[in-house]
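Exercise 7b. Backbone tokens:
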């Protein structure tokens, strides 16, 4: 997935997701519940390709960083628990959808 609208659709298809801008208009922050809910996905508004930050199990986060050069420690986030993915197509669509769901499940558990 490299298209921002497709990525947003994958995020917002999950139950109870709300969009917030707590860090200003440059970063779309997706949370579960309401504006006070836990964030699980962030998208930089002006980046091309899309930069998507997702919460991740620390062990899996490391494996993904080793496997893909476009998966980096979370930008401006806890690097142990967050990855930033440059959505250039290197991470397969199904895997990216799984990572979005994984992030969502971590904050709703």
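Sequence design result:
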């Amino acid at each position: 997935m490299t298209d921002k609208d497709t990525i947003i659709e994958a995020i917002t298809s999950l139950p109870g997701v709300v969009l917030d801008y707590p860090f200003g208009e440059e970063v779309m922050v997706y949370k579960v519940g309401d504006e006070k809910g836990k964030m699980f996905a962030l998208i930089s508004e002006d980046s091309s390709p899309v930069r998507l930050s997702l919460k991740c199990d620390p062990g899996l986060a490391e494996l993904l960083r080793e496997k893909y050069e476009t998966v980096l420690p979370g930008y401006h986030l806890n690097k142990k628990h967050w990855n930033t993915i440059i959505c250039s197509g290197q991470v397969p669509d199904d895997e990216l959808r799984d990572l979005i769901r994984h992030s969502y499940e971590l904050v709703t558990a």
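Instructor comment: The radius of gyration is 13 Å. The chain has a mean pLDDT of 95.
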